[in-house]
Amino acid sequence: MDSTDILVAGGGTAGLAAAAAFGSLGLRVTCVDPAPAETPDGPDADLRTTAILTPGRALLEAAGLWDRLAPEATPLRVMRIVDARGTPVRRDFDAGDLGDQPFGWNVTNAVLKRAFAERLAGMPNVALRRGTGFAGRVAQVDEVTATLSDGSRVAARLLVGADGRDSAVRRACGIGVRTTRYGQKALVFAVTHDRPHGGVSTEVHASGGPFTLVPLPDHDGRPCSAVVWMTDGVEALRLKGLPDEEFARAVNARSAQVMGPLAPVGGRQLWPIVTQVADRVTARRTALMAEAAHVVPPIGAQGLNMSLGDLRTMIDLARARPDDIGEESWLAAYARAREPEIRLRAFGIDALNRASIGGLGPLRALGLRAMHGIGPVRRGLMQLGLGLR
Ligand SMILES: Cc1cc2nc3c(=O)[nH]c(=O)nc-3n(C[C@H](O)[C@H](O)[C@H](O)COP(=O)(O)OP(=O)(O)OC[C@H]3O[C@@H](n4cnc5c(N)ncnc54)[C@H](O)[C@@H]3O)c2cc1C
């Protein structure tokens, strides 16, 4: 039987980041995932992009990951919210209000996964095993033994469940989830446009959910943005299946021309939208993180950034108490730090999503203009969104 310090179940963006971060502390790490490595242009390629917010960057730097991402990361300097119903209302939240750093950087998930896997390949103390997944666990006081789907077993001080929203680790621990469904899906694709995006990320609200444009590097010499279009599930399926020309017409009608004419490029992908929070984030010798612990609608770039928050807490605890990793009071400290924060953010994003489905109704009542117009309120909202307070 193999033995390691940390066994990470899940080689998605969160699991790979966890393997690199623990590995950078000099710990022995094994990361397992039943799925093969993605081929960037293959049918299974993840077309999503991830806006990494400022607090996440420091963690990625410490894990030796940021340098690999920086050349392909597009800075996000302005978050623009457009209420497109009736007479359009447009408000800009400018990172310049908070300091000289952008809000964050947008990176394609394909680049993220490739860069993370390359970093792990250069770490002798980290093993990435694809083609085999977590199947079961027996936890004792001082270690956990996991059985993998290929029949092999690995003993570890800590099992990290980063195996996604249907987490087998979570199920093996008997931890339940609370799930809210909205009947919505997110349609993900890219567009080119004539006008440079200038580092502006734009959320256009009408009804049914936001239509968000997020800056990407140029595509074939033309300015390019990623789009996340959240809408009713049946409508999303219809849109995904439209012929190219009709699809382009629908996209331009929904974008309210905020970036001028848009030309869709590349594939289209659908992602179901749910809010899901695990009842607990720990069990004996086991910690859940990322989508295994929390799934939120893709609003305000919170998903992976909350996951990096989970990871930062674990890494801080591992630095402060290296001998106690995975032990009961170490895990209790992790749960104390993360569970209230996860619930609060999931609650806030759920409320924002409901507001957006209704065409920003409650936000209109609160007044987009007023929220934006009062400097301290505006700056407070931006800091909250970034996880700086
Ligand atoms: C449309 C959309 C846009 C988004 N945009 C942003 C954004 O801008 N910013 C942001 O912060 N977040 C964003 N998110 C959220 C972010 O993409 C996710 O939080 C993140 O990618 C999920 O990471 P994960 O590693 O937890 O889950 P996954 O990516 O689902 O990875 C889980 C991994 O676990 C593996 N696995 C499954 N079963 C097992 C097993 N038994 N054993 C071991 N491994 C297993 C799977 O093969 C998979 O590789 C967005 C999400 C969506 C849907």
From TrEMBL:
Keywords: FAD, Flavoprotein, Monooxygenase, Oxidoreductase. Pathway: Cofactor biosynthesis; ubiquinone biosynthesis. Residues 4-340 form the FAD-binding domain. The keyword Flavoprotein applies. Signal peptide: none annotated. InterPro entries: FAD-bd, FAD/NAD-bd_sf, UbiH/COQ6, UbiH/COQ6_monooxygenase. One of its GO terms (molecular function) is monooxygenase activity. It comes from the Bacteria. Its cofactor is FAD. Belongs to the UbiH/COQ6 family. PANTHER family: UBIQUINONE BIOSYNTHESIS MONOOXYGENASE COQ6, MITOCHONDRIAL. This is FAD-dependent monooxygenase. It comes from Rubellimicrobium aerolatum.
